[in-house]
Amino acid sequence: MNICILSGGSGDDVRTLIIEEAKKKFDSVLYVHLSKIRILCREDGPKIFYKNKDLSDFDIVWVRAFGEDFVLAELVLDVLENSDTYVQSTAEAFQVCSHKFYTVKLAGAIGIPVPDSSLMITPEVATKIVKRTGFPAVVKLLSGFGGKGVMLINSEEEFKPILETLRVFDEFISAQEYLPAEATDYRALVVGKEVIGIRRKGGTGEWRANVSTGGSAEFIELDENIQKMALSAAELLGADICSVDFLMTKEGSKMVEINFTPGMIKKFFGNKIADKLLSFMKNKLEKMQNENNEKEKPKKEKSDVQ
Question: What would be the CATH architecture of the domain defined by 2-88?
Answer without folding.
Answer: 3-Layer(aba) Sandwich (3.40)
